[in-house]
Amino acid sequence: MTQAVPTVPLLINGEWVESRTTVWRDVVNPATQEVLARVPFATAEEVAQAVSSGQRAFKTWRKTPIGARARIFLKYQQLIRENMADLAATLTAEQGKTLLDAEGDVFRGLEVVEHAANIGSLQMGEFAQNVAGGVDTYSVLQPLGVCAGITPFNFPAMIPLWMFPMAIACGNTFVLKPSEQDPLVTVKLVKLALEAGIPAGVLNVVHGGEDVVNALCDHPDIRAVSFVGSSHVGKHVYQRATLAGKRAQCMMGAKNHAVVLPDANKEQTLNQLLGAGFGAAGQRCMAASVAVLVGEARAWLPELVEKAAALSVGAGKDNPDLGPVISCAAKERVLALVAKGLEQGATLALDGRNVQVDGYPKGNFIAPTILSGVKPGMAVYDQEIFGPVLIVVEADTLDEAIDLVNANPNGNGTALFTQSGAAARKFQEDIDVGQVGINVPIPVPVPLFSFTGSRGSKLGDLGPYGKQVVLFYTQTQTITQRWFADAASVGQVNTTISLK
Question: 121-164, pLDDT tens digit by residue?
């Protein structure tokens, strides 16, 4: 007898409920094509119920003492730690990344949860006494109301944890739409959040595709939308949400360059290039997908290829160096881009297209692939490949490399490998990219700071975690007050603007 495939529930007003939709999608293990679960595309009525639940809960949650909010996230971070192995295993099964990388996915989100527990310090306002005669002014950071988050497939633990903990810690309520491709670990994280003490209605979960995204952007009771994903969808979300009068922040696509100077430590640099280019099968918006070899560093290409060829490929649960890409469609897209690159004149320095993994004949595997001789204007340079493909570009000087990076429309991240402090300082000052690494290939900051992608990689002024996101999820209210000691001090009518 065939075992029934489980369905993924919605969370509305603190209750896990079965969707009444007629539209479902399979959640598939990308290493085996096994169907793990079926996820519903929520109806318009169910999305409205989730938002309404958040709206009702906001009335009391916004007035919950800040210390009580903080203690929930102290408990939550402990629950995540205790369940790390189970969360990582679920993530690996549905997304494909290795177990070690899956734990890293959870851990980087955990750091934001820990930061949310410090909300008492982060949400402090300002005070000034006697700004005029007997007049004081102070400001408070008030929550907005119901906020929404739309998350991508490549970090199904980290990015949801970027969003709802900080929003809720600030006193808002939240409607989360996980990726329909791998929602299972996200649902487990939400269950732990409820166990930690988040009240009914404060956190709600809906699933779906474009219709659900549009409903969240359009709903008049949602005050802010946070998005991470492709540039195409991000631009749509930003335009639709802001036209509806909402705050929006959209972290989108990238083409991150790692610039290598010949004075860099060769062994360390090559190892870091490979880790940043091929980790998570290249499915990171901060992947170092372009290696810019400057001057004599161009001679390092054969060693780069040799090291990449030694990386292992397999099912994530077996902890190889890289697992499969998320879907059959994703694999076909990556292979089509590689073919286009060759057609446009790139050289195939390492071919990983036909890799076979023992025991997993149906897996979406692509081994490390390197294209050299790449130039701007080629599809593999202009588009985000989002697979285990490293493209190699050459430059004669650091200035030429900087111009190359700055001419690219994206601005998520970049890195420089060098032992020269002067070169590093010049690079940092002249480069027009939000996140810069010096001998650090993926310069994603810890939550004490904020994710700061720029230009074509980001829409909205404020980043998705750190101090900036407190400003995103709050409205500054300024209060100016004067108290009179007695009736005699009231004075005369004053028709000027002065506070004297």
Answer: 999 999 999 998 889 999 999 999 999 999 999 999 999 999 99
Q: Is residue 233 part of a domain?
A: yes
Question: Does 369 reside within a domain?
Answer: yes
Question: Rounded to 5 degrees, what are φ and ψ at 36?
Answer: -90, -35
| Residues 219/44, Cβ–Cβ less than 8 Å | no
Q: What is the pLDDT of residue 487?
A: 61
330 and 198 in a single domain? The answer is no
Q: What is the pLDDT of residue 499?
A: 62
Catalytic option among 170, 217, 250, 285: 285
What does the block give as tokens for 314?
């397999």
Token pair of 42, please? 């929520």
Same domain, 199 and 306: no
Burial of 377 (0-12, 13-18, 19+ CB in 10 A): exposed
- Report the percent of the chain where pLDDT is more than 70: 98
Report DSSP state, residue 316. Answer: G
- Residue 285 a catalytic site member: yes
Q: What is the distance, to the nearest Å, from the Cα of residue 266 to the centroid of all Cα atoms in its chain? A: 31
Whether 231 and 270 map to the same domain: the answer is no
Considering the domain architecture, whether residues 136 and 235 belong to the same structural domain is answered as yes
Same domain, residue pair 281 and 202:
no
Give residue 332's domain range: 256-438
Q: What confidence tens digit (pLDDT) does each residue in 29-77 have?
A: 999 999 999 999 999 999 999 999 999 999 999 999 999 999 999 999 9
- Count helices and strands (H / E) in the chain: 16, 22
Estimate the crossing angle of helix 184-196 against helix 158-169, to 10 degrees. 30
pTM of the model: 0.95
Distance CA 384, CA 364 (A): 18
In contact, 64 and 72? CB cutoff 8 Å: no
Is residue 308 assigned to a domain? yes
Domains contained in the chain, number: 2
Give the 3-state secondary structure of residue 4: coil
CATH number, domain with residue 116: 3.40.605.10
The alpha-carbon radius of gyration of the chain (Å, integer) is 25
